[in-house]
Amino acid sequence: MFRSGAAELPLHGGRCPAWLFARMRELGSAICEAIIIEFGTRELLTRLADPYFFQSLGCVLGYDWHSSGLTTTVTAALKEGLNLEEHGVALCGGKGKVAKRTPMEVEALGDKLTTRKVEELKRASKLAAKVDNVVLQDGFDLYHHVICFDERGNWVVIQQGMNVESRLARRYHWISFKVRSFVEEPHAAICSDVRQDYVLNLTSKLSREAREVSLDLVKEGNFTKYFRELKH
């Protein structure tokens, strides 16, 4: 597992105007199709996994360059504009409740993929979300999750969390080409203007012992004993 980067954006509400979304869908699919024709689906996934390219793509499509809505709107436009039959690439998932339907949407496209690849995509989707929401506790709660994949089973996860207090959103990009551990040093880069004062990063190598102790505690199941010891 290889996490390719992250971006931080102001948290904005509202919806994208229908006329703009329609144009973003058409232009976005055309740009992606050109990349696929020239370089292949692997290159498209590689570029979508780059937070700078993704942000630039949103700007080219006409969306606000510095808004949390860029993530959700661009992925929604590409989800409607791309499909496995025509482009060899598809997107599943989305914002809020739609994100929870990601495994079902992947299964719905399963006739184009082998059963093994479908299960691998579902597993990658769930684990990437779990890591950014639980293993890495940086104050940003996930509310958007999308997995983009090709017919070979290569994939990219683009997900975003929000910090209500700071009014910021943080976007995380994952890519499957360089397989690493889900739980130890999966991050390639984090692009952010703000550093959190208190972050629990259990993906760090320095947290290896903490992960092991956490697993031991879960297996043992006797939390009450340790709570009493901590109080004293």
Question: What's this, in brief?
Answer:
The protein has ten helices and seven strands. It is α+β, with helices and mostly antiparallel strands and 232 residues long. Strands 1-6-5-4-2 form a five-stranded antiparallel sheet, sandwiched between helices. It has a two-stranded antiparallel sheet with strand order 3-7.
Describe the 3D structure:
There is one protein chain. This protein is of the alpha+beta class. It has one domain (2-201). Helix content is 48%, strand content 20%. The protein contains 10 helices and 7 strands. It has a 5-stranded antiparallel beta sheet with strand order 1-6-5-4-2, sandwiched between helices. β5 and β6 form a beta hairpin. α1 (18-39) packs across α2 and α7 (102-108) runs antiparallel to α8. The longest helix has 22 residues, at 18-39. The termini are far apart. The model has no long low-confidence stretch (mean pLDDT 87).
Q: What is the average of the pLDDT values?
A: 87
How many structural domains are formed by the residues? 1
Shape: globular
In N-to-C order, the SSE pattern is: EHHHHHEHHHEEEEEHH
| Rg estimate, integer Å | 19 Å
